[in-house]
Design goal:
With about 120 residues, this protein is an all-beta fold. The chain has strands at about 5, 10-15, 20-25, 40-45, 50-55, 60-65, 70-75, 80-85, 95-100, 110-115. The N and C termini lie far apart (about 35 Å).
Length: about 120
């Protein structure tokens, strides 16, 4: 059973923008499993998966230094959807992006590929 379905990735030039979406089909973020809030991870080729943005249950947001000021995480509770607005993209942002529970991820979705050309 697929819980998280990510979309919105693509090929973009450096300096461009993309908005990623994640549909929470399993209603995880509203459940007890979602006590840690929601998050966006990414995995670049040859590197470990890293958490780059998260939103707590109270709505406060936190970002990795590498994306601070460029990425914005948000959610639409009515649609059970989480977004990641990415601006001023850099080639170093090239990765597969996933949503999941921060620091306690469960089954991963298929992710969405973001490729930033220089």
């Amino acid at each position: 059973q697929v819980t998280f379905v990510e979309s919105g990735g693509g090929l973009v030039q450096a300096g461009g923008s993309l908005t990623l979406s994640c549909v929470d089909n399993g209603n995880i973020f509203r459940s007890g499993l979602g006590i840690n809030g929601i998050g966006w991870y990414r995995q670049a080729p040859g590197k470990s998966r890293e958490l780059v943005a998260r939103m707590t249950g109270r709505g406060s947001t936190h970002y990795d230094d590498s994306v601070e000021g460029r990425f914005t995480i948000s959610r639409d509770s009515a649609e059970n959807t989480v977004y990641l607005q990415m601006n001023s993209l850099e080639p170093e942002d090239t990765a597969v992006y996933y949503c999941n529970i921060p620091y306690a991820p469960i089954t991963w979705g298929q992710g969405t590929q973001v490729t930033v050309s220089s």
